[in-house]
Amino acid sequence: MDSDIIEHNPSLKRPLLAVLSLCAEQEISDRGELEERAEEVWSETYRQSPSTSIDILIRNGALEEDLLVDGKPYDGTLEDLQLDENVADDASVDDSVRITEGGSYLLSRYEPETAIHELFEERPHYADVYRAGMEACDTPDGLNLPKLEEVLEAFPQLQPDPETHQTKVYAQYFIDALESAGAIEWTDAWRTTDAGRAVLAED
User: Fold this and answer.
1) What is the b/e burial string over 110-127, where b = at least 16 CB atoms within 10 angstroms of the residue's CB?
2) What is the C-alpha to C-alpha distance for residues 163 and 155, in angstroms, rounded to an integer?
3) Local structure of residue 161 (DSSP, 8 states)
4) In whole angstroms, how large is the CA radius of gyration of the chain?
5) How far apart are CA 173 and CA 164, in angstroms?
6) Mean pLDDT score of the chain
7) What is the pLDDT of residues 55-76, one digit of tens each?
8) Contact 51/35 with Cβ under 8 angstroms?
9) pLDDT surpasses 60 at 1
């Protein structure tokens, strides 16, 4: 399994973890039902569809797919099956998926609360900025982008260097970092996630 699939492809993080979380809820899932359940929680910001995300996880060993044709194991992928002229049009096809040890590892490795803690630990000099961003978004109506930028830009870490007059880091850096860690999400406004609120409640 490519254990670094999410590390190497940050944009896949949220859709892949969404699928893995659903798969972790039950030992074996019917693929069609899994795709339907994923559609219910899918964000319009995800670049991949549930079906494509499942395929990616299968190819990388995070999910295992079992195909049965008329009750017998089929040696191939779903795409192979759909193009297989030897399979009758009226054949009974069962397509199920299960999470593997590798998939469970990814789920635990990139679990939002863990990722948020790591963000604070890796950048302790930005901890107060991260926290302020999370707290600001923790309202029923959330926060629009200009308001969130205003909150973050008030911190000295975002001010221009007094000698060079150059700004080293901008508000968008913190917004991207918090979103990537699963601390905030965009749903018509920036809002703190359940994981983000859990971390805030620890202090």
Assistant:
1) bbbbebbeebbeeeeebe
2) 18
3) P
4) 21
5) 20
6) 91
7) 999 999 999 999 999 889 998 8
8) yes
9) no
